[in-house]
Amino acid sequence: MDKRITLITGASRGIGKAAALELARRNHHIVAVARSKLALEKLDDEIKADGGSATLIPMDLKDKSAFETAGQALATRFGRIDGLLANAGILGTLGPLQAVGPRSFEETIEVNLTANWRLIRAMAPLLQRSEAPRAVFISSGVVPRPRAFWGPYQASKAGMEHLALGWADENENLPLRVNIFDPGATRTGMRAEAMPSEDPMTLPTPEDVAKKLAPLLEESETRTGVRISFRDQ
Q1: Which of 112, 191, 188, 181 is nearest to 152 (CA)?
Q2: pTM of the predicted model, to two decimals?
């Protein structure tokens, strides 16, 4: 494989899909991970129509055994990956903390935090085989600016940031570059769910965000352990 191989979670919609299409146009082979096989197949069609290539992995991030299986399959097929975009996330329940049910709280932590630890464990050996490995974790503006009623979501994203930044520090003398990317308010389904009264036409599109996100997964990106905001780019 003479292309950079980049794995993207949550690749079937929103920022993940836009990033997959943008990176494919930049000559990355996309390893697209999402729950919906149908949505992944539609993404594959779009990537191929643009002259790109992809490998599809239908996968639920709550499936603990799926990470190791995916890592082994990629090791067998490619021997490495060059990029990791940890994009997948869920909003969970918005509201007073005492009103959040245990199942919803645990699912939010599982998908937004624990799954990213499993992703690191499974993909780190493959990234170590790349000459210029890059990893980016998608976060949120509620981490530096916590707000009422966003408790489980912002707690999970804050934990994810510290997980990723710790990993960056562990690899500071190695080729792996690990950064956080905060897209800010974006015209996605998750944003509409969180802010139903907001006019989506006032927000940047996922495609706008992807154009600034994609360079962080290129060989030319040298920063590591940095929190990067879309609006500061």
Answers
A1: 112
A2: 0.96
Residue with tokens 């916590």: 146
Q: What is the C-alpha to C-alpha distance for residues 58 and 81, in angstroms, rounded to an integer?
A: 18
Tell me the CATH class for 4-232.
alpha beta
**Residue numbers in the chain where pLDDT is lower than 50:** none
Active site residues: 153
Nearest to 181 by CA among 215, 133, 146, 150: 215
Tell me the residue type at 218: E
Phi and psi, residue 88, nearest 5° = -60, 140
Evaluate whether 54 touches 8 at the Cβ level (below 8 Å). Answer: no
Contacts of 107 (CB under 8 A, 6+ apart): 62, 90, 92
Task: Please provide residue 9's backbone torsions phi and psi, each rounded to the nearest 5 degrees.
Answer: -90, 150
Compute CA distances 87 → 104, 166, 187, 202, whole Å.
Answer: 20, 18, 15, 23
Does residue 14 contact residue 91 with C-beta atoms inside 8 Å?
Answer: no
The tokens 């707690």 sit on which residue? Answer: 155
